[in-house]
Each structure stands twice: as structure tokens, then as C-alpha cells.
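R.M. (postdoc): so does anyone remember the format we settled on? I'll just put the C-alpha cells first.
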């Protein structure tokens, strides 16, 4: 909703990727107010948004999934982003809706971000088919760690100093902006998810298979994503990390895009999306190696989904994206709820929201109730982990 932002994109190195007829903007943003983005701009631009989406959909040979990319802390991303999500459900109910949402950190400079995030989460829980939460703090920690590695000078950490995150030949622009490295992580997450739709592979995965295999309950569709490798080696002759190590990294906290620890919580399902020269035998071996370390729900202990794409990312021999439906996401949601309650208890800044046409005070309590119910559902599943009994070994059938 800010013309200045779009103009910057249209003058940048990626301008050829966008059709100017598909861009919708206004003079100013939503003022960090979810109600303005969702109700004001959502109502004003509803018909225009639907028309442009329909035009784009008509050019698709096989429409699999809608990607909705937005932030949660501001007003436009959380408000208008979730409004578009509802429009997609109404206009294309049969098409899967996959959301990548960036969550603010606790030290976020937007004072109303807890309001915006919790109000948006109610919409994500009700109208999205699958959500990949990405926390700003995780991105900051990953970039800081890689920058530290790049300056240590150790032989095992010979990393390009000009490009901390894999982005081809050092990115499309010569000057790196403050958030480029963080954005590159998210971009590579999306590139890995869509690799099967763009390249050949011995075991490709359709985008709608992610939701089909990883979401056993409609509301519990929040996935923890982890990506490896996260950096580009400066010297291509330096051998990359062993394949088995790559699998281990994908299940470590340092490679996750969310501040959580799945190993100490319960897995509902897990997907491994591999790119490069990786054999099925490598995949089976590592799943068997990792299986004893991970706690799966007893009714889905074989809940693994795999994808093998033959084409690796530029500058690498192979890569791995792991998507886990795990009860550990409740920890982040509980922290977000606590920040929301601190503001809501004092009714701080509430008048900015209720003054917007279509927004009522009850919307806050309903959003809080929705988030609490979601946390309770994850907690109930997590409680079964301690009461698990020894299961009889199941028959393993070779694929």
C-alpha cells in the first residue's frame, strides 16, 4: 500500500519479474494498524484484487497452490495479507493456500506488533491450508553466525564475505543492503519448496502434497522449516560437508527459521526436500539414523515425506529443506500471546483499532481465544509424548 516501495522494486534488478498491470498500491501504508489493512484497504481494493488474481489464474495450465507472502508485525502485511487469504478461499476454494509469514521479534520497534500478529493469526488458523512461520530473530541469529564464521579464517569455514547467504553468484546487486542476507534465506526457502515444480527429479513432490502429507488436523498446519547449507563457500575446491552431516544440520536449532526445539517435542509429520545428486539409499539411511532421536506421534511413526530434485542450487552439489509439523511451535505462540496480553490488559492503543469501520473490541478477545485454543491443541498432543508406551516394531517395506 506504499507507492514508494513498489517504485523501488520496479527500478531494481528484479523489475523484469513483475508485471506492472498486476501491482496494486495506495499513497500510504496502514500505519501499523491491522484493522486499516484488513478492513479499510481490504474493502476498498477487494474487486481489483480479485480481478487481478483471476487474470493471473487464467494463464495457469495447472494451478496447484497460492503462495501468500507477508509480515505479521505491520498493518498492511498482517491486515491486507490475511484479507487476500480470505478472498482466495472464497474465489478458489479448491486450490491450496500456502502462507509464508514473517513474525516480529520481541524487541520489535513496532509497539502494536503483538496486536497485529495475534489478529492475523486467527485468520491464518481459519483460512490457510499450511503456514511456514519465519521469525525475524532466527534470521538475525543465522546471519550473525555466518558473518562471524566468514571472518574467523578457519579452513573449514571459508565463506564468501560479500555474500553471506546462498544467492547464486553473490546476488543480483553489487551493494548489499542491511536486510538482503535475511531476505535471501526466505527466498531460498521458497526456491527449494518450488524446485520440484521447476526441475526434473526421480521423486518430485507437488506443492499440494505438502499440505496433504504434513497436516493431519486442519488447524494444526504450522510447519517448522530448516535449510542447509546456509552459506556459499569462497573456494569451490573446498569439499562441502558430508551428506549425512547435512541431514544432521537440518534437524539442529542453528538451521531453523523459527526459535524452537523440535527434538524435545512431538512430530506429527516431517518432509525432506532434497536437491542435487542424492540417492534414495542416502535418504533411507539417514531417515533410519535420525528416527531414534525424534519422537513421532504413535499413530504416524512412518510420517516421512521425501522429495528428490536433480538440480542443485547454484554453487552447491546438494541442499536440503526440512519441513516439520511439530508441537514445539506452541512455545513461540505462547510468547506472542504473553506480549499481546501485556498490551491488551491495559487497553493500550486500542482506540486506534476500534475507530476503524468494521473493527470491534470483540475482535481482540476472539483472536486471543483462537490463539489460546490453538496452543491448547498442541499441548494436548504434546502431553501424549510422556505417556507413550513401547510400540511393537512395525514392518518396514522397501520403497
Amino acid at each position: 500500500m506504499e507507492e514508494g516501495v513498489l517504485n523501488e522494486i520496479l527500478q531494481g534488478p528484479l523489475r523484469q519479474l513483475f508485471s506492472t498491470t498486476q501491482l496494486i498500491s495506495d499513497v500510504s501504508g496502514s500505519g501499523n494498524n491491522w484493522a486499516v489493512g484488513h478492513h479499510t484497504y481490504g474493502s476498498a481494493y477487494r474487486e481489483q484484487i480479485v480481478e487481478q488474481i483471476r487474470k493471473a489464474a487464467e494463464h495457469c495450465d495447472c494451478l496447484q497452490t497460492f503462495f501468500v507472502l507477508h509480515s505479521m508485525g505491520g498493518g498492511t502485511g498482517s491486515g491486507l495479507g490475511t484479507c487476500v487469504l480470505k478472498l482466495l478461499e472464497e474465489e478458489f476454494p479448491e486450490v491450496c493456500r500456502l502462507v509464508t509469514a514473517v513474525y516480529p521479534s520481541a524487541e520489535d520497534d513496532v509497539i502494536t506488533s503483538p496486536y497485529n500478529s495475534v489478529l492475523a493469526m486467527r485468520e491464518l488458523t481459519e483460512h490457510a491450508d499450511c503456514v511456514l512461520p519465519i521469525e525475524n530473530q532466527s534470521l538475525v541469529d543465522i546471519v550473525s553466525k555466518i558473518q562471524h564464521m566468514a571472518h574467523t579464517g578457519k579452513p573449514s569455514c571459508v565463506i564468501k564475505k560479500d555474500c553471506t547467504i546462498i544467492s547464486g553468484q553473490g546476488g543480483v546487486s553489487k551493494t548489499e543492503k542491511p536486510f538482503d542476507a535475511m531476505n535471501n534465506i526466505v527466498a531460498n526457502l521458497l526456491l527449494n519448496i518450488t524446485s520440484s515444480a521447476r526441475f526434473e527429479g526421480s521423486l518430485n513432490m507437488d506443492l499440494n502434497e505438502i499440505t496433504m502429507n504434513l497436516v493431519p488436523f486442519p488447524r494444526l498446519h504450522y510447519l517448522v522449516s530448516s535449510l542447509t547449507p546456509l552459506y556459499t563457500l569462497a573456494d569451490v575446491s573446498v569439499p562441502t560437508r558430508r551428506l549425512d552431516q547435512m541431514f544432521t544440520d537440518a534437524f539442529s536449532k542453528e538451521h531453523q527459521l523459527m526459535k524452537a526445539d523440535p527434538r524435545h517435542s512431538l512430530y506429527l509429520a516431517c518432509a525432506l526436500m532434497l536437491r542435487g545428486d542424492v540417492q534414495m539409499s542416502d535418504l533411507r539411511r539417514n531417515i533410519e539414523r535420525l528416527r531414534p532421536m525424534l519422537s513421532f506421534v504413535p499413530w504416524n511413526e512412518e510420517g516421512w515425506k521425501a522429495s528428490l530434485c536433480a538440480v542443485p542450487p547454484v554453487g552447491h552439489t546438494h541442499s536440503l529443506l526440512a519441513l516439520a509439523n511439530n508441537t514445539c511451535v506452541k512455545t513461540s505462540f505462547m510468547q506472542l500471546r504473553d506480549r499481546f496480553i501485556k498490551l491488551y490488559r491495559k487497553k493500550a492503543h486500542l482506540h486506534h483499532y476500534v475507530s476503524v469501520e468494521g473493527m470491534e473490541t470483540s475482535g481482540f478477545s476472539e483472536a486471543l481465544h483462537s490463539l489460546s485454543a490453538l496452543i491448547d491443541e498442541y499441548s494436548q498432543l504434546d502431553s501424549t509424548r510422556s505417556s507413550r508406551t513401547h510400540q511393537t516394531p512395525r514392518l518396514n517395506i522397501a520403497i
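R.M.: ...and that's the designed sequence above, right after the C-alpha cells. Also worth knowing: The CA atoms of residues 148 and 157 lie 10 Å apart. The radius of gyration is 21 Å.
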